[in-house]
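Tutorial, part two.
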Amino acid sequence: MNAYTLIIAEVKPDTASIELNEQVLGGNDALEFSSKLYETFDKGINSVIIDLSKVQVMNSSGLGMLVSGLSSLRKNNIQMVLASVPDKVMSLLRMTHLDKVFQIYNNIQDAYDKFS
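Running the prediction step on this input gives:
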């Protein structure tokens, strides 16, 4: 199982980021990702940045994992954005029109700046 890390910004403690691994394929990854998102509910987090800079492979289950996460966070009034989306993943987001659903930033710093 891959280990996702929830990082709470020191400068802006109500914003967190989660860095995804090289392969985002759903399954056990989705369960671990969901558990990291649920951690935000108890920590006073208002915004979550998903850092995709290391992702090399993402399938439809991985996309589903992101959409499910977005839905769960929205129900709890928490914003979720994507940052540092690689070209392959961006093509997949465009093909599925999810680029219209997610707020996407060129890099993680731009995403943090959005919440400052």
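The two ends are 33 Å apart (CA to CA). In part three we will examine how such features are distributed along the chain.
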